[in-house]
Write a structure and sequence with these properties.
CATH class of the largest domain in chain A: Mainly Alpha
Strand content of chain A: under 5%
CATH architecture of one domain in chain B: Orthogonal Bundle
CATH class of one domain in chain B: Mainly Alpha
CATH architecture of the largest domain in chain A: Orthogonal Bundle
CATH topology of the largest domain in chain A: MetI-like fold
Shape of chain A: flat
Order of helices and strands of chain B: HHHHHHHEEEEEEEEEHHHHHHH
Oligomer: heterodimer
């Protein structure tokens, strides 16, 4: 769409160099303002990173920005210590299990249900779908107490599976909503002709819907992955010894001043993975954001 | 549940389908297979708990149900101070954050529309969206430290305040003898001085690196008739030295404002000390005087705001949260801006509208649907806010920083163990988002 617009315009008259310079100078303040704003958004994260590479002794007396005048104090020893910390390694593994596991299940179940709501015919279809939309905004606080009791009774408490399943359930309304809306928009004649050729619904789902729906599925997967990698509340409630990295760091927060050489690098480690995912799949992430702006 | 009902249907469709296409039961069965897993998850993890929580909110603290207490839990919710603080704070969040986030998003989207490096800018501002609110809380906790030597925000504040109200040359100094007494920030020599006399103003508690660089060996000036003279000096040398006596190795303190006060305590003359610490008030009329060191000498440097302290914790949380979500608003509004009909804007400009008029009368009205989506999304997010409060507010400030979601967690789980009131808080939160739920459903029904 965006590409089509310039093609419609008439060729612009060529600008003289002087005119270009005048315009650049006139817009100088705008660029300065934008650079300042960008700095405001970048500095805190840079500050976290620099804090994470400073030894505790330096952090007790110096702000992180003073590393620029004393670069020699910077050290990787905080990270070195963390990667020998069994608790952190375990927390990272748990985070990965929860985030990857629940994302896979959400994508599969969400795609199946989305397909049913988009292309299968059964009584009460629209009513059930309205119900799913209704579940979109239900706060997860509504489920914490009952599931805490149920997990206790079924030994799902303090397991990564229990935490992941909770994320699956609360990710499903958005997944179904997003994928159903995408699947509805797929060309009808392809599906119809496949049905006439005698393909079963399962074959149609696997061979047509999933490949065609890949952009939406990718958006969903990235969303769900980031959302659950970054989760704190669910893991805090249903984990005790089996906890992801956010909860592991939260356990150190009480001693903020003295544990900062652990908290800062661990926080930075926790955000490296989401950051990589974000940069690798930025386009899909933004698409998902636009598709389901109300969650 | 629906799926279960369908599969349990009697085998009516066992009869051969009329026209070779799969029978109705077969179609329903297929639908059921596709839907059952998702509906099972939603039923067990969302519908059942929601119903249970609503019922549970009318029962006592412990047990599967406990005893019936009626609406007592809701009464507790609206009368306990930590919980009403949570509701009040959440009201502040709703009043401030959606408006700020939407406005910032709109401003950023419009400003970057015709800038060549817009992608870089947008990526930077959008970045916090990918990071956990928890890690952001830790990040801002580092930024918000009170000591200007540690917290970047207060360091900036110190730099700025240093320009307008500089710290005194001797902000940590204290008198070396008891005759020099503090009064209204200044130090006054209690021993009266007369013309021709000498005033000795000894100070201690000055670190070597705080002694002004121009400082020289302290010298007691010879008395001069009609003048009041004296010396301001660091009454300390390695090894200690004798208190109240100017000795070799003790440094004069230059640049110190010395005041001469009359018997009524009024300042009649001021001067500054020389490198050797000496000062001289010449031609002083006869009478009784007191020498004093001006208050500005001891002005404390900017000590930093307690961003995470009782009075600023809520604003600090709001700032960090707006910092996270401004990128979201910018991207959604930017997409709306990109899909706006160009010809309408061009027409407005051709008709002679200024940039501001075009923005105000054309862009904003056309963007209204997008702006309202961002606004409503932010209301929901803010009502459910938890992570950033948990991470950024020190535990000692939880009571003041409290929000509904945090109150629910603290009441039901961490230490509280009160499932009755916890359920009531959850239901209250649910009731707050119901209008949005209704809005979503109405929008869907209109679309289909």
């Amino acid at each position: 769409m965006a590409a089509a617009a310039p093609a419609m315009e008439l060729p612009a008259p060529r600008e003289s160099v002087a005119l270009k310079i005048v315009r650049a100078v006139a817009r100088g303040p705008l660029h300065l303002v934008l650079i300042a704003i960008g700095g405001l958004w970048l500095v805190p994260t840079i500050g976290l990173f620099i804090t994470s590479i400073l030894p505790a002794s330096a952090l007790a007396s110096k702000g992180w920005w003073q590393v620029f005048s004393h670069p020699s104090v910077a050290t990787w020893s905080n990270y070195d210590a963390l990667f020998h910390n069994a608790g952190l390694i375990q927390a990272l593994k748990t985070t990965a299990y929860i985030a990857v596991g629940n994302t896979l299940v959400v994508v599969i179940l969400g795609a199946m249900a989305g397909y049913a709501f988009a292309w299968l015919d059964f009584p009460g279809r629209d009513w059930i779908f309205v119900g799913v939309i209704g579940l979109l905004v239900v706060p997860l606080q509504m489920a914490l107490i009952p599931m805490f009791k149920l997990y206790d009774a079924t030994h799902l408490f303090d397991t990564w599976e229990g935490i992941a399943l909770f994320h699956v359930a609360f990710g499903l309304p958005f997944a179904i909503f997003l994928l159903r809306n995408f699947f509805v928009g797929l060309p009808k004649d392809i599906l119809e002709s496949a049905r006439i050729d005698g393909a079963s619904e399962i074959v149609i789902f696997l061979r047509l819907i999933l490949p065609l729906g890949l952009p939406a599925i990718a958006s969903l997967a990235i969303f769900q992955f980031l959302w659950t990698w970054n989760d704190l509340l669910v893991a805090l409630t249903f984990g005790q010894n089996t906890t992801p990295i956010t909860v592991w760091i939260a356990g150190q927060l009480r001693e903020f001043g003295t544990s900062i050489d652990i908290i800062a690098p661990a926080s930075f480690i926790s955000l490296v993975v989401p950051l990589c995912v974000f940069f690798a799949f930025q386009r899909y992430f933004v698409q998902g954001l636009l598709a389901g702006s109300v969650k | 549940m629906t799926a279960g009902g369908i599969t349990a249907e009697p085998p009516v469709a066992a009869a051969p389908p009329p026209s070779g296409e799969p029978g109705r039961l077969g179609r329903y069965l297929t639908s059921a297979i596709f839907l059952a897993p998702a509906l099972f998850m939603l039923g067990v993890w969302m519908v059942y708990p929601a119903v249970y929580t609503i019922i549970r909110s009318f029962f006592g603290e412990t047990g599967f149900l406990g005893h019936w207490v009626g609406i007592d839990n809701y009464k507790t919710l609206f009368t306990t101070s930590t919980l009403t603080t949570a509701i009040k704070n959440n009201a502040i969040w709703v009043a401030v954050v959606p408006a700020f986030v939407t406005a910032l998003g709109l401003i950023f989207a419009v400003l970057t529309e015709r800038v060549r490096w817009a992608v870089a800018f947008k990526t930077v501002v959008f970045l916090p969206m990918a990071i956990s609110a928890f890690a952001t809380g830790v990040t801002w906790r580092i930024m918000d430290q009170q000591d200007p030597g540690l917290g970047a925000i207060n360091a900036l504040g110190k730099t700025i305040s240093g320009v307008f109200s500089p710290a005194g040359v001797l902000s940590t100094a204290s008198p070396s003898t008891s005759v020099l007494q503090s009064s209204g920030g200044a130090l006054v020599l209690k021993t009266p001085t007369h013309p021709g006399g000498i005033a000795l103003l000894g100070l201690t508690g000055i670190a070597p690196d705080q002694v002004p660089k121009s400082s020289a060996q302290a010298v007691t000036p010879p008395p001069k008739p009609g003048d009041i003279e004296g010396v301001v000096w660091r009454d300390f040398k390695p090894g200690g030295g004798k208190v109240g006596v100017v000795e070799k190795g003790e440094l004069g303190l230059p640049g110190v404002t010395v005041e001469l006060r009359n018997a009524a305590g009024k300042t009649v003359k001021t001067t500054k000390s020389k490198p050797d610490g000496s000062f001289d008030f010449s031609n002083v009329p006869a009478g009784t005087y007191h020498a004093a060191i001006g208050a500005q000498t001891f002005a404390k440097p900017f000590g930093g705001f307690a961003w995470l302290g009782p009075s600023l914790i809520v604003p600090s949380l709001l700032i960090a949260y707006i910092w996270i979500w401004a990128g979201f608003a910018m991207v959604v509004i930017g997409a709306g801006l990109a899909s706006m009909p160009r010809d309408v804007l061009e027409a407005a400009r051709t008709d002679g509208a200024t940039e501001w008029q075009t923005f105000r009368r054309v862009t904003v009205p056309l963007l209204a649907p997008v702006l309202s989506v961002v606004f409503i999304t932010m209301i929901i997010n803010v009502l459910k806010v938890f992570d950033i409060v948990f991470a950024l507010a020190p535990e000692s400030e939880y009571a003041r920083a409290n929000v509904i979601a945090l109150a629910m967690y603290l009441t039901a789980f961490q230490g509280g163990e009160n499932f009755g009131v916890g359920s009531a808080i959850a239901v209250f939160l649910f009731l707050l988002v119901i209008p949005v739920l209704a809005l979503n459903i109405r929008r869907f029904r209109r679309e289909s």
